[in-house]
Amino acid sequence: MYLMKKHILVLASFLCGGAVFAQDKAPAVKANEKYAVAKEGTFASFESTLAYGKVTLTKLLTKNSSGAFSTAYFLKNNVTPSFNNGKPFEVQLGKESFDAFFQKSSPELSQKWTQLVKFAQDKKLSFSDEQTWSDVLNYFNSLK
Questions:
Q1: Distance from first CA to last CA of the chain, Å, rounded?
Q2: What tens digit of pLDDT does each residue of 76-125 get?
Q3: pLDDT tens-place string over residues 20-56
Q4: Pairing state of beta strands 55-63 and 45-51?
Q5: Helix (H, G, I), strand (E, B) or coil at 61
Q6: Residues 6 or more apart from 12 whose CB is under 8 A from it?
Q7: Which residues of 69-92 are buried (b: 16+ CB within 10 A; e: fewer)?
């Protein structure tokens, strides 16, 4: 009998609670309010990170007004952040850009340059593609 009364009380509380939720609510938005309408759009550029750590390599894919895409690559030195080297350094995929960045950016980077060149030579890597740059920078970011 006691158990039956308990079940009836539980059912009654659910029914009453449901009745509260079933009540009509005033609309949250008034009919005469104006809204900004979202329009379809397309992205003008897309950035992806190819290697992240002490040195970050990012790829920027940009669509120009004629619909053609252009690609740019940027290195950012996170080892010694300062006002001068806080901005990304645009590079072309090639050995010349790699050497210039690691030899001229900061003393911390130039100290590791010979290790990176040896790593690339041992693996017979060319610096003409994204994968090589990612591999070398991931190796650099793993160095202590």
A1: 75
A2: 887 666 655 567 778 888 888 888 888 877 777 788 888 888 998 899 88
A3: 444 555 555 555 556 555 566 666 778 888 898 888 8
A4: antiparallel
A5: strand
A6: none
A7: eeeebbbbbebeeeeebeebbebe
CA distance 75 to 115: 18
- Single-letter residue type at 67: G
> Which token pair is 75?
């290195």
- C-alpha distances (whole Å) from 53 to each of 6, 19, 103, 142 are 62, 57, 18, 8
Distance CA 70, CA 65 (A): 11
Give the relative orientation of helices 107-122 and 95-104 as an angle to the nearest 10 degrees.
150
Tell me the pTM.
Answer: 0.61
Instruction: Give me the pLDDT at residue 135, please.
Output: 92
What is the number of residues in the chain? 144
